[in-house]
Amino acid sequence: MNRLTIVKLGGSVITYKDSSPPKVNRENLLRIAKELKTSTEPLIVILGGGAHGHQAAHKHGFGNSSTPSEQLLKGIPSIRHNMSTLSLAVEEILNEAGLHGVVLPPFLVASLNNKEISNFQTSLFQKAIWSGFTVITHGDVCFDESLGASILSGDTIAVYLAKEMKATSLYIGTDVDGVLEEDPKTNPEAAHIEIIDTTNIDSVLGKAGPSSATDVTGGMEKKLVDIFTLSGLAMDIAIFNLGVPSRLSTLLSGKTPPCTRIRF
Ligand code: ADP
After folding, report:
1. Distance 109 CA to ligand 1 centre (A)
2. At residue 212, does pLDDT exceed 80?
3. Domain that includes residue 223, residue range
4. In angstroms, what CA-CA distances link 14 with 66, 118, 211?
């Protein structure tokens, strides 16, 4: 069996999410690159939009269902430019760490219909993995057959590729310790949930909410709804705090740091 690990780097950790103009968090990325280098398996690394994606998307009316398609289409150049800038910065840092990264943007290979993926050519991703590269891809804006353009989130891509490419592991890095009984930003005392499985998924979903106001992709709730589509697959899945050093490398070594494991 070919092994493949997919790691999503949350935009809140790899960028300064509230910075305008958008700014890359180099310090975190240099550390994350070293942790990724400890992986013994091929990697697909998926970048969240953070400051680069969400501000431009919000400005052009993504996240508001009444925005006309002409206005959404006008947002494509600036969102694409920002996400390319972020992905090239990450590519440089990963390559300095010896990860042989290549950026493959979803805009070139994915089409959407009413915000859902209608086509995503994974053959290029497969070829790059087989060639020994680390594939870097990211949340992006894509053409949408019914809406003109839509945002394809890094979380949705991570889950889609995990399923299509039969990944062995999927690790979703964010700025909190996984899933909690309530949003820890509104209740810092909220209890941590170690495992989500079929016995508690419904109650957990009722408590997981969106992210900040400018985030157009849905926060923790959407992550869980997406991950739920992987039920029945033998895959090691965890949501963890990428902002804390060594949590990622612990997962990559097959151990369990503080995180939320998902077993369906
Ligand atoms: P990223 O940018 O890292 O992908 P998001 O901002 O999209 O992350 O989603 C993570 C955010 O979801 C957290 O920072 C938190 O504020 C929010 N959130 C809402 N409900 C919960 C919950 N029950 N448990 C954990 N986080 C939650």
Report:
1. 28
2. no
3. 5-262
4. 31, 29, 16
